[in-house]
């Protein structure tokens, strides 16, 4: 019985810590500003100030929505 309580407490603590760490990572990503006006939909890290193609996959770069939602 005592062992079960200790295991449950450890699992709850682990889950609580991991939940806190994940939420702070997503908040950082949401506040990051986009670099270029055009980007690849498959590789968002590939950006450009003018239309063109992705250097990784060759897809056309699409215009980023800059309305500031």
From TrEMBL:
Key words, A-Z: Signal
PROSITE patterns attached to this UniProt entry: PROKAR_LIPOPROTEIN
Ranges where the Heavy metal binding domain occurs: 37-63
One Pfam family matching this protein: HMBD
Iron is among the record's keywords: no
GO MF term list: metal ion binding
Signal peptide region: 1-19
Protein name: Heavy metal binding domain-containing protein
Taxonomic source organism: Mucilaginibacter glaciei
């Amino acid at each position: 019985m005592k062992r079960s309580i200790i295991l449950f407490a450890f699992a709850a603590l682990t889950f609580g810590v991991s939940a806190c760490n994940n939420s702070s990572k997503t908040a950082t990503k949401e506040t990051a500003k986009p670099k270029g006006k055009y980007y690849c939909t498959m590789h968002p890290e590939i950006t450009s100030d003018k239309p063109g193609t992705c250097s990784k996959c060759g897809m056309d770069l699409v215009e980023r929505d800059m309305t500031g939602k």
